[in-house]
Design brief:
Blueprint lengths: L6 H7 L3 H11 L7 E4 L3 H4 L6 H6 L18 E6 L3 E3 L4 E7 L16 E5 L5 E5 L2 E12 L3 E5 L3 E4 L2 E4 L3 E6 L9 E7 L3 E2 L4 E10 L3 E3 L17 H8 L4 H6 L2 E8 L6 E5 L2 E15 L3 E5 L2 E7 L6 H5 L3 H4 L4 E6 L2 E5 L1
């Protein structure tokens, strides 16, 4: 994960692995949902009148005032991170991250009818590194009612200044159902018209409001062997597009590929709804022969594992756990790459 903090620092601070994950999110700016900014007045906080510099400038006879402390470069942010969709009664992680060191004992968690925070309430784990100060708190919670629920703002103080998280919406369901638009697969290319010798990066992106697991996993690569060299079948399986490797090879050299490079997914917002964003496949191509490479529409079977019970067993491929969760076939649109 980008921005992951070195393990030695985490161990030195006595942080749990869960806290480390949340701090890494804070360090790399992840978690766009549930964030509200507060820009602290560092001059006022230091006890200096806000107009001190202007008063000093008004008279050359007065001794120059001391320079005010440097203003914080980034605003204070408290972020709430929660899944877009959860099951009624199922325990889910509810995380809070802060890009500063909080005042002890000042955290006020969100409260709403039907929400129960079961574990984790306490003091934030803190850390200071080259990127600044960070703090995190991982709790676990559950909802005992269904519907679209707005999670209110959490609050914490930093040097006496209150900092609020933004509200977020969660959908609480009593059975796993996938509505149109809940899961989407999209091809993204950094460019679609190139000349021979030009590089192209092709990505297959997954956007899902549910936690999902690919049903068909490519064969693992041999030691020292790239996915691209492991055979076109791996790329075809990872993309859900039969014949993809052959179609691309007609006009491009497949320099390298990375299958499922971001299993830890991030959260993003699309059209007002929160989605998990996950890179399923990255292909590094080099234009070799003039012509048109057509990525035909395909589909990928995905197992929906929104419910937490049996989630990790399902991820490991346990047949009994997998039987609990429905499988959906998600279609991908086609894409055309031209070498001119």
């Amino acid at each position: 994960m980008a921005g992951t903090v070195a393990g030695t620092l985490l161990r030195g601070l006595g942080l749990t692995a869960a806290a480390g994950v949340v701090l890494a999110l804070a360090a790399c700016g992840r978690g766009p949902e549930g964030t509200a900014d507060v820009k602290a007045d560092s001059t006022a906080a230091a006890g200096t009148p806000a107009n001190a510099s202007s008063l000093a400038a008004s008279s050359a006879r007065k001794p120059a005032s001391k320079p005010a402390p440097a203003e914080r470069q980034t605003p204070l942010q408290l972020t709430t991170i929660a899944p877009p969709v959860v099951m009624k009664g199922e325990v889910f992680p509810l995380d809070f991250i802060l890009n500063a060191l909080p005042d002890a004992g000042t955290f006020v968690p969100p409260t709403v009818d039907g929400l129960e925070i079961t574990t984790g309430l306490g003091e934030f784990a803190t850390q200071t590194d080259a990127q600044g100060d960070h703090a995190s708190l991982r709790t676990h919670a559950r909802f005992m009612k269904t519907g679209v629920i707005t999670l209110p703002r959490a609050k914490i103080d930093v040097q006496g200044t209150p900092v609020y998280a933004g509200e977020i919406k969660l959908e609480v369901i009593d059975k796993v159902t996938v509505a149109p638009g809940d899961i989407r697969l999209e091809w993204k290319a950094d460019r679609t018209r190139v000349k021979p010798g030009d590089p192209v990066t092709l990505r297959l992106m997954l956007y899902s409001r549910h936690s999902v697991r690919p049903v068909n996993k490519p064969a693992p690569r041999a030691e020292g062997q790239s996915d691209a060299l492991a055979g076109g079948a791996d790329i075809d399986t990872a993309s859900g597009v039969p014949g993809l490797a052959k179609a691309l090879s007609a006009h491009f050299d497949i320099v390298d590929s990375d299958i499922d490079p971001m299993a830890d997914k991030t959260l993003t917002q699309v059209a007002g709804k929160r989605y998990y964003e996950r890179t399923m496949l990255v292909l590094s191509l080099k234009a070799a022969r003039k012509g048109k490479a057509v990525v035909t529409p395909g589909q990928m079977p995905l197992m929906v594992v929104t419910a937490q019970s049996g989630y990790f067993a399902a991820l490991r491929g346990d047949p009994q756990a997998m039987a609990r969760f429905p499988t959906v076939n998600v279609k991908t649109a086609g894409l055309t790459l031209r070498v001119e």
